[in-house]
Amino acid sequence: MKIIAVLNGESGTLRTLDIAAFIADAKAAFTAEGHELHCDVTDGEHILNVLEAAAQNPYYDVLLAGGGDGTISAAAALAWRNNKILGVLPAGTMNLFARSLNMPQNISVSIHALACATVQAVDIGTCNGQVFVHQVAIGLHPLLIRIREKYNYSSRLGKIWANFRAMVQLIRHVPRVKTEAVIDGRTIKGVYSALAISNNPYGDGVLPVAPDVQTGRLGFYLAKPLPVSGMIRLFWDILRGKWRSNLAIVEDHARSVQLKTVTHKTHQYMSVDGELLPLPAMLEIQIHPAALKVLIPEDVGQMLKDL
Question: Which of 79, 138, 146, 303 is surrounded by the fewest CB atoms within 10 Å?
Answer without folding.
Answer: 146
